[in-house]
Predict the 3D structure of the following.
Amino acid sequence: MRRWNGWGDETIDVEMNADALGFLEARIGPGQAPTDASFEQACAAIRASRLSPHPLVDTNTSVRALHALGQSLPDWLRLRHGRLGAVPDGVAFPESADQVRALLAYAAANGAAVVPYGGGTSVAGHLTASLDQPTLCIALTRLRAMRNLDTESQLASFGAGVTGPDLEAQLRAHGYTLGHFPQSFEYSTLGGWVVTRSSGQQSLRYGRIEQLFAGGRVETPAGTLDIPTFPASAAGTDLRELVLGSEGRLGILVDATVRVTKLPDYEAFHAVFFPDWDSAQRAVRTLAQARLPLSMLRLSNAVETQTMLALAGHKRLVGVLEKWLRLRGCGEGKCMLLVGASGNKGQARAALRAAFAIARGERGVHIGKGLGERWRHNRFRNVYLRNAAWRQGYAIDTVETALDWPGVNGAMAAIEAAAAQALGEHGERVHAYTHLSHLYPQGASVYSTFVYRLAGDYETDLARWRSLKSAVSEAIVASGGTISHQHGVGADHAPWLEAEKGHLGLEAMRALFNRFDPDGRMNPGKLVLP
Amino acid sequence: MRRWNGWGDETIDVEMNADALGFLEARIGPGQAPTDASFEQACAAIRASRLSPHPLVDTNTSVRALHALGQSLPDWLRLRHGRLGAVPDGVAFPESADQVRALLAYAAANGAAVVPYGGGTSVAGHLTASLDQPTLCIALTRLRAMRNLDTESQLASFGAGVTGPDLEAQLRAHGYTLGHFPQSFEYSTLGGWVVTRSSGQQSLRYGRIEQLFAGGRVETPAGTLDIPTFPASAAGTDLRELVLGSEGRLGILVDATVRVTKLPDYEAFHAVFFPDWDSAQRAVRTLAQARLPLSMLRLSNAVETQTMLALAGHKRLVGVLEKWLRLRGCGEGKCMLLVGASGNKGQARAALRAAFAIARGERGVHIGKGLGERWRHNRFRNVYLRNAAWRQGYAIDTVETALDWPGVNGAMAAIEAAAAQALGEHGERVHAYTHLSHLYPQGASVYSTFVYRLAGDYETDLARWRSLKSAVSEAIVASGGTISHQHGVGADHAPWLEAEKGHLGLEAMRALFNRFDPDGRMNPGKLVLP
């Protein structure tokens, strides 16, 4: 069963080992285990639904509670403290586009806002219900079947509510993969990926969801938008691009066709260490600009490298590795690069060899597949550490952006410094570390993680998060970064969107959404503020 | 000096050899050399400008005539017959964004429509002036400087009026290339490429203009839209996508930043022949789906292959080649594939070897670099054949679309048959042939050329073209293709846009353009009909 107030499945616990805990305590002080509210306590404050009865709409309190929030830190605070705030007045689980249309009409008749719900994994406040009007949550859970697989065009069509594992399983049965693996993969959905412009860990090979999304159907208050598939087109505005990143503001994506590829014959993840950040950063830029057919490049800064090695357990083995690396010039400030390649074995291995040669040019030390395979094994498990940290009294939050190369180092430093200063004003320290999660010829995404102590009461913890979020978002914008590279905007990032879109850009988005949703009932308060 | 009523520079003539002429005569009958109007005759009917005087606006008749039309066949008919019809009332050559803004204000004060003019190479009627209101043509000619080259991010910023050769020369001086080579390259402009979603001959390596356009500045009646550059972003609507394919409807792109790459160390174009279309088509699909790092795949059908060999001259050499090919199984219905690779020599040659191996699996016969290099040499000269054919009394027109793989063969057959039937109704034959100009894992572009006889009088030739254009456009839409893969929509394709966008899709485009251009003065009548 899925956890109602944390990440993932209740049967999966990833523990923090004593060494890792000691590592954190030394940096930010000992944590104090908080007390969580029970599900019953959280549900107790939920008010009666304001929606009229409808055969497709479930107004049961527990169903409404389970669809009220995502996985952002303020969402967690509301869940853990049993202070859900606004929850949807009802949740529907449509099984067809017709039912979605009927539900939109029902919402209009009820004067209700509509919040689409995919996997509930948003970390940017995409799912919050409206306080001012009744809210209907439309969960896409039951729209998950593969409708069609065209192996000639390598196109597959799915109900947009299909989750990552379900989608990959349906494709794998035919020898295909989408290759889209965000960290939320186990719960997030195809539709959610599209409307938040998601990026997977192996986007270097498979592309971002923008490149994978080929067409589909959107049900909007103004009618149905059918987007046909073409390999490419010069026919005016690309309608796919209106749906990508629309975050529910113009309608509900019910059906999506995606570009798939044959399962790779071969896949490997290797680790390379560099003596310091500057050489590592130069190496990954050269690698990205060499356009080698790799599937992943992921570079951790020195503190993240140290943290990953501390969290790995196996203290003795890590000690041996570090000693060996030190002899090869990778000591205190060393940075770890993970390099993945997938596909035809010959091509993939040639790409890896070329990558290692470039890395050697910056004194990179290739240590083989051990740590890379370990990363692969844990790629969807590391996120469970948020649960473990919470139990020890620590919050883990992340932010991410992307910038052209000249801005990358400055942004990383500014984001980490802003976090330290923001929490310093609350008398707290932060353990901040960063990796470049996606590498492009033009620049990189900068993904920072913050570990800091929970106070244990809702108001104080919300205030800490607000200070942190505001400070790092300001730092991102001031550094010239986008407010999100892969998580989307939601409610949490919306105040910083104008910095990159400009007034006129936001106005264009408003005009667009307004044409599809003249009453402004689709996911109000998200993405573009009124 | 540039030809005022045909393609290219007056000093360049590409002649049709006697064999080629005989080849055409045998197929569609002898042509009769038409009589062209002189430039003075064409200008004589131009009425006085309806615009008020402005220091930036040239109302000289000849300047207005030279900016009245593009390169579509109906544009040629108007030029050749000296029946220009509506011409702009004035032409401005702004040197800054400030001047563009001033000109937009001036147009508003004059109640004038605004037609942006790049290189005047449109083949879809993008440049036609308005009949109902005064028209100001804003030519971007003087906005052509490279403002910035950021070699760290591989980004270059240019005035949007820069032409292909000028852009490449400015980059080449620093060791970089954009790699965007549409057939119109010699005259078409960066801004034109962006707003019509252009695709270059080597887009397999460099990407379409959509992938190359990183940001820029658009001056619109509602204000300035500045689009910053990011390597990627999940922050809502991608503003670049609102500008791409906008065809002047929302404003004027004055400045564009593009993703450039280092000049390749190595570049080669090879030819491979296949015994028939089916094996050739299967081979290119396999090649595209193998995602080899090639720079070009271009497959001619049997009639195009035969035509290219006939046009090549060198009858004896072609005879030897054909004999040699026949011995290897490529006889009557043989199809020629051009394969290009660029970049690092080792990687490019490995990709070519892998490509030839795949081709062999479909009985493809690799004949080396001769014809490929010949194609490279003539890549921007073949378009001059339109002039030569005209002098012999023949029209050459083209259409193009793109489709998922299952539709490719049917569309090709339907387009060629529609052309034959349409001209048959005029008692004329057509010589129609096709190539797949751009190959994608998902499908291909289908690019058809039609050669048919000119009647020599304007009305008859316009009627022939209208029948042809309408029939092939209907065939494209009925086959499930996009109305344009690389030429854009303009006025000529606008009636068929709703077939792919749907009513709601068009309405969304209208709402978007209306927000930037509430008075509807920007390039009216193009892209989206009122």
About this structure: The first strand of chain A starts at residue 57 and ends at 58.
